[in-house]
Amino acid sequence: MRVFAILAVTAAACLPACGADALPHDEAKARQLREDAIANHMAKTYEVYKSSGNRSPKWDLLVQAAHKHNSERMFGPELLQIENTALFLESVTEAIKAGCDDPLIIYYRVKFSNEEFTPEVRKALEQNARDLEKSQYSDLDKARAWHSAAVARLTPGPDETKREEADWRRGLECHKAVVTKLTALARSKDRHDREGAREIACQQLSLGATFGYRQQFYNNIRNVLSTFSSADILRNLIEGSFYIDYAWEARGNGFADEVTEEGAKLYKERLVKAREHFAAAWRADDQCAEAAVGMIRVCVGLGLPAEEMETWFARARKANPTLYEAFEAKFNYLKPQWHGSNEELLAYARQLAKHPDWGRQVPILMMAAHELIARQSGDSVAYFTRNPQVWKDIQPVLEEMRKRFPKSIMGATLYLHYARLCNKNRVQAAEYATPVKDKLKMNGFMDQQEIDAALQWAGIKN
Question: Of 36, 89, 109, 98, whose CA–CA distance to 61 is shortest?
């Protein structure tokens, strides 16, 4: 997946360099939240395996390594995600080769080792979900497995233009199994369960929207969660997210003058409903960062005052300083096509460039700001090479990234890309990228043609 769209643009006038202090950041709380997330995940996976799994000295250490790397893949620095994913899958593969038949390890192998939904993969994923149901693993992992099975059953595979009727039925059965697991997760007092349940529910709603089941999937989830009050926070978060996506479906992605009168009316009505649900979630739990982020997204859509957006931004950061979505939501609010300007967006991006949380790549939004502004011009080469302020903004971020993550494939890719765009630091770019030159395509940021051109620019033999 591309991090930022690279589009052709014009020469831009020099942009002012605004002084910006770093945003306040509770590093101790951020560190504790990351550590808690990893510990919670290990408790639900490896500790369950130790107490109830089919253990053997032949593969115990490999299973431990698989869960450790998976935890780091999910909750560790995103700039090391490619590396942690590779180590995770290597441990899974070796454990299975050694004879491990643990249902969660088998599920990992099937889910992450197949890019196409063949009949064999669909059958395997559904069987994985059924096998996990019989295990002592968490409802969260069982819900994820049923979601994977539903995706596989409903998504056309290679050389398919539509799904067989039997697969539709089985896909809907898998969806119902997800809903059952969401019911159990909603009763949990573990905030990690609630966060995981919200994520899975939103994925289910997206799946339903893709294949014509948006309202049915929404009703199924809402009706179940409405049956007991302890699920009110989760239900309101899910409903708020549903109405935001539903609002954008009515509006479309065109410019304001391309939106129909009916589309604009529905857009506003649905965003007002989203606002009500996120506000209700926040009233029930004023440490619910996801509710605060939802309110920032509502501020974007309804054009609410910047003061209100800033209030919710501060609340989200205070509740969870590691939540990247909060920084991204404010970034969207400040885009010139919404409620900000190039100057405001860059001032914010310069604050983020000094932000200490590299786990979620917050400082890299500096590059995203310049990409966005470049799109408003007409000559990308001129924008990045003739405007000294662009490199002055970007270079400190790239150097800090190289210092913190000297072996990161994603880091090397970003450095090489932006150094080439600005025609700067050719030697440093080559030093960073050469050790991983054969792996640059793994992150999907550049296609092969772009990679070849960048390697040639840096003097790296491919």
Answer: 98
